[in-house]
Amino acid sequence: MGEASIFRTGTIIGDKVKNYEGIELGELKDLLIDTETGKIEYGVLGFGGFMGVGEKEIAVPFEAFVLKEGENYFLLNVDRETLETANTQIEYQESSYFIY
After folding, report:
1. Which end of the chain lies in a sparser environment, N or C, as judged by fewer CB atoms within 10 Å?
2. Residue 8: which domain range?
């Protein structure tokens, strides 16, 4: 495992998330980790709302995010409409997340 493939979570929480058309979708708010395997299962995308009010937290499989190294943002191959209509939810440690 090379140094380039290891990062501190504090360096990516708060990073912007854009789609491949360059449209900003939100920011990475949290990571959900499988405690049995230690693997990051989901990245939580803060989507919509205004200054955190009305924001929808969407759990996205972490492997769907592409880190743009040196540019401090992630790419996600999804359009805004898909995120707006996400309505399936999961519960994790007394928090509820929409799932994509």
Report:
1. N
2. 3-99
Does the pLDDT of residue 87 top 90, yes or no? Answer: no
- Rounded to whole angstroms, the Cα distance separating 62 from 40 reads 7
Contact between 20 and 78 (Cβ < 8 Å): no
Largest CA distance in the chain: 40
User: Can you give the CATH number for the domain in which 78 is found?
Assistant: 2.30.30.240
Check if the beta carbon of residue 31 is closer than 8 Å to that of residue 42: yes
SS3 state at 39: coil
Rounded Cα–Cα distance for residues 27 and 15 (Å): 5
Q: What is the pLDDT of residues 31-85, one digit of tens each?
A: 999 889 999 999 999 998 766 677 899 999 999 999 887 788 999 999 888 888 8
| pTM: predicted TM-score of the whole model, two decimal places | 0.83
